[in-house]
Design brief:
single chain; 256 residues; alpha/beta; six-stranded mixed sheet; five-stranded antiparallel sheet; 27% strand; globular
Length: 256
């Protein structure tokens, strides 16, 4: 069974600006999908729709076969499941933002344990044990009592990844996880994501790191103008694209 299913997703802003045009996408368990494309292509909007941060105009969204949203046949507009069902569905995924979004007044440890305790109902000792193990995997064992302002950007992003993993999600979304980092810090985040891929964590990654997408993803999707232009094996899409728009994008990218 697919972890994620998006069918015929459309998103219109301000009544007329169609940002997503009939997008369909499925992600299987253990699959790593990288989404690439120019600014304004709809990549981040697609991620926001998939993670319930932005409502679709129409289309269907399901996790593990459970519907979060679907198109009402009478109105032609998307309707969403009730609050109880959406709360359950939100537990299936985690999202890592490009700007970390850590709670500045919480220690690193509390950033990792707050949601598992208060949202999932996990006891504090168990949550702290899991958090400690995750920090060790991130190379941050000595930062449990630190606050976000005391960490580098790369360290903050690793904490953000650990925080998402602490909720034990079925699938993890990344929205340009290295875009807010200096180039020298980018490598440490990509290393963490690479390790997650090797551990068969299901992931959808919006990224501008072409070499990373080629080497780590099982599938690359190229978006432009709110549609999926081309998708397939990373070595084919990035190394030998078939669509002219994909070729133009990658050629311009390689010159930067």
């Amino acid at each position: 069974m697919n972890i994620l299913d998006l069918k015929n997703v459309q998103k219109i802003f301000d009544g007329s600006l169609e940002v997503l045009k009939d997008i369909s996408l499925s992600v299987d368990k253990g699959e790593v999908v990288a989404i690439i494309g120019p600014s304004g292509s709809g990549k981040s909007t697609l991620l926001r729709c998939a993670t319930l941060l932005t409502e679709m105009s129409s289309g269907e969204l399901s996790y593990l076969g459970e519907k979060a949203a679907w198109t009402d046949q009478q109105t032609g507009k998307a309707v969403y499941a009730d609050k109880k069902q959406l709360k359950k569905i939100r537990s299936y995924f985690g999202l890592v933002f490009q700007n970390f979004n850590l709670f500045p007044h919480y220690s690193v440890l509390k950033n990792l344990t707050d949601a598992p305790v208060h949202v999932l109902g996990i006891d504090k000792d168990t949550a702290e044990k899991t958090a400690t193990e995750l920090l060790e995997k991130m190379g941050l064992s000595d930062k449990a009592d630190a606050y976000p302002c005391q960490l580098s950007g790369g360290q903050q992003q690793r904490v953000a990844i650990a925080r998402a993993l602490a909720m034990n999600p079925q699938i993890l979304f990344f929205d340009e996880p290295t875009s807010a980092l200096d180039p020298e810090l980018t490598g440490e985040i990509l290393k963490v994501i690479r390790q997650l891929a090797e551990a068969k964590m299901t992931m959808v990654i919006v990224t501008h790191e072409m070499a990373f997408a080629r080497d780590v993803a099982d599938r690359v999707i190229f978006m432009d103008g709110g549609v999926i232009v081309e998708q397939g094996d990373p070595k084919d899409v990035i190394g030998n694209p078939q669509e002219e728009r994909t070729k133009q994008f990658l050629a311009r990218f390689s010159k930067q």
